[in-house]
Design brief:
Two copies of one chain form a homodimer. By secondary structure, chain A is an alpha/beta fold. The first copy, chain A, has a domain at 83-110 and 210-387: Rossmann fold, CATH 3.40.50. Helices cover 36% and strands 16% of the residues of chain A. Chain A is built from twelve helices and 14 strands. Chain A has helices at residues 39-45, 87-93, 112-125, 138-150, 165-173, 184-198, 211-225, 242-257, 277-283, 310-320, 329-343, 349-364; strands at 6-11, 17-18, 33-37, 83-85, 97-102, 130-134, 153-159, 176-180, 201-202, 233-237, 266-272, 323-327, 372-377, 394-395. In chain A, the strands form three sheets. A six-stranded mixed beta sheet of chain A has the order 4-5-13-10-11-12, sandwiched between helices. In chain A, strands 8-7-6-9 form a four-stranded parallel beta sheet, with helices on both faces. At the A-B interface, helix 4, strand 7, helix 5, strand 8 and helix 6 of A face helix 4, strand 7, helix 5, strand 8 and helix 6 of B. Strand 8 (176-180) of chain A pairs parallel with strand 14 (394-395) of chain B.
């Protein structure tokens, strides 16, 4: 049995086919390429029970990943992320079945590790030696560290206003790091120029097909954790949208393989009111989004004014009967603090946005109290310590703790 | 079969026995109590193969943990931490078999989660409602978040000079947080007073017996990952020493159970030259340590001038033919950067100290090139972003990435 059933690449818009054995960027039509597998052959030769004896973590799904041999895998020890029951937060939100898939427990502290372990592995396998990407921070940190593990060179460009901790991660990995006085699109323009003139391989969001395959494993893991079925609703913080597109791709592949039934979870794209192009497009039932002007939110990871894969995000929302919701920064911070005090998880603002969205959707009646709801937290709260206001009295020797 | 085989508590110094069904602090003689299990009965009724079907993570060893029922477990989704091969760092250090057990992949980002999940669970089970502890940061953060999950009240006192991120974790959990202009001993004195006067349960290092049981699982996991055998050498960053004492306790219990053979790994306690009381005691072949004056190191987590369990640490070193090593802050930072650029792991200074120690021990010949060496990294590097110097040029629109 082959390690991977990768068969070819296919354009997400015009369906043009490319071979999967060499490096490809976008389709000639300018749209992202998607990895396609020989699912028919896999159905005949693989049984789900075979998974039971495999190690925990996303590489257990290697048949549905693009790396052709175990030796090609660049790993920092990814494990399955927990699906945590949140009974007290559920009670607060009037949701009887609320779970959080906590992606902060991956190497580098965010879900970006999934894209990086798969993307870096495949890039190296196909002969790339110098990678370049624009980033809002966490993706750059993840790719820089996985690239270091793989012995590849990495160029990272991130907005000056991005949170500072990912800078440290990029710097210590040995990556070339530049800051740009602008947003992620400005970083992308600088990267595109370096790719054109200096021979870097462009690994920007959806400009190569394999990061998405890593993100897809969020869906695979979730469905396996639920006993190969889907919840009623999945809330996901949405910037570039690769996570949501990946979960939808997992859904489609699992259905084609017969691993799950025909039921679809309603997918919810969560954005901030300061940058909500997908919400605006969804409300207009549009096929694509328009660039958001003056984008700004405390949830920096989802500050993406115009996503290359916007039409894929919107397709996933329409196909599953989902929706798109925008929440205010104040709601994000309130949800972040409430979750920490009720459930002990200190999550990132992007993840917290999903709990704020759940509150809105419950109030509007879009969510029922009995819906089985899964929220994805995409990263650690400690990556954004400035989101927390600390009030701590300073004591000196001879002082005492005041009675509470 | 019982969920736990906990039988009684025993003083680590005078061997006095206490019942395990109520809350106890130190023994009347002032020494830590150790949890003892009915290992004979466990040997008769349990086979290692039974572990295979259990979920990944430390609670799989529940027979050797103090919580008496699954309902008593307070979890944030702990998973087995990876044992990462480090071929490039090994080549640099001239060590042919070098692995790192990466404890940064636990909830709250440090090994402290092990002590917190077990300690908080057991404290709640025994009826504690208000917990108090002094901390250098990470333990406080872990206990504060697990206590929030458990619905318990928490009082945390930490040095003013401790790294700032754990403050945010404590604050957002809803804990009462105080800073003290002093070291961890000063924080401990304030906690002791609050315990005496305000009815808190003291969960300071080794002042209750169950945190150690959580730490013990580092050993259990490691031995299981190696196929129920031990490596030649284990390096561990040592402040209060509970991690090292826990690994040694795991060794003893696994040997009594026949899960591993008689071979002992040489345990190495790693400290910083700015706070090395255990190293000084080990060099003098002493049974206890003396308080270190003017303690200071960048590896703040191991700034413990006088550990309550010093005699237990030293016992473990002597019993296994191990040693204690001090490394300079400059060596710590060099090792941290080298590991990140060679192996893609951004680790905390305490973990990095162990790689600096490995370099010393290899140079001195204490480590052989063929020794199977396991280093414990106790936490995430991102919790200490200030240990990294970031040099990143700022570009503006119209600029270009310079050729490399």
């Amino acid at each position: 049995m082959p390690f991977s059933y990768l068969d070819h690449l296919e354009c997400s818009r015009c369906a043009k086919v490319y071979d999967a054995d060499s490096l490809h960027g976008l389709c000639a039509c300018g749209s992202p390429l998607l990895a396609r597998y020989d699912l028919e052959r896999l159905t005949g030769s693989f049984k789900l029970e075979q998974l039971a004896s495999r190690e925990s973590g996303l590489w257990r799904y290697h048949e549905l990943l693009p790396v052709s041999s175990p030796e090609g895998v660049v790993s920092l020890g990814e494990r399955i992320t927990p699906l945590l029951p949140l009974p007290r937060m559920g009670q607060h939100l009037d949701l009887r079945s609320l779970h959080m898939k906590d992606e902060g427990l991956l190497p580098t502290g965010t879900f970006k590790a999934r894209g990086a372990t798969v993307g870096v592995s495949r890039a190296r396998q196909l002969g790339a030696e110098r990678l370049a990407m624009p980033t809002n921070g966490n993706a750059g940190a993840a790719w820089a560290l996985y690239a270091a593990k793989a012995g590849l060179e990495m160029l990272i460009v991130m907005p000056l206003a991005a949170p500072p901790i990912p800078r440290a991660e990029c710097a210590i990995s040995g990556a070339r790091l530049f800051l740009v006085d602008g947003l992620i699109g400005d970083a992308g323009a600088l990267v595109a120029q370096a790719v054109a003139e200096q021979g870097y391989t462009d690994i920007s969001t959806l400009k190569e097909p394999y990061r998405l395959e890593g993100k897809k494993t969020m869906g695979l893991e979730l469905f396996e954790q639920l006993g190969w079925r889907v919840p009623d609703v999945i809330l996901y913080p949405t910037g570039g949208g690769v996570g949501l597109i990946g979960i939808f791709k997992a859904l489609q592949e699992c259905q084609q393989l017969g691993w799950i039934g025909p039921k679809l979870p309603r997918l919810v794209a969560v954005q901030a009111t300061g940058c909500a192009p997908i919400v605006k497009a969804w409300e207009a039932r549009a096929e694509t989004s328009e660039a958001w002007k003056d984008a700004s939110t405390i949830a920096f990871g989802i500050t993406v004014p115009k996503a290359l894969g916007d039409f894929l995000i919107l397709r996933a929302l329409y196909a599953t009967g989902g929706c798109a919701v925008a929440v205010a920064d104040s709601e994000i911070l309130e949800a972040q603090a409430r979750l920490a005090s009720l459930e002990g998880s200190f999550i990132c603002p992007e993840g917290a946005a999903c709990f704020a969205a759940a509150a809105q959707l419950r109030q509007s009646g879009w969510l029922n109290p009995t819906d089985e709801v899964v929220v994805f937290n995409t990263g650690l709260g400690v990556l954004y310590p400035d989101t927390v206001t600390v009030q701590a009295p300073v004591l000196r020797q001879g002082d005492a703790i005041p009675a509470s």
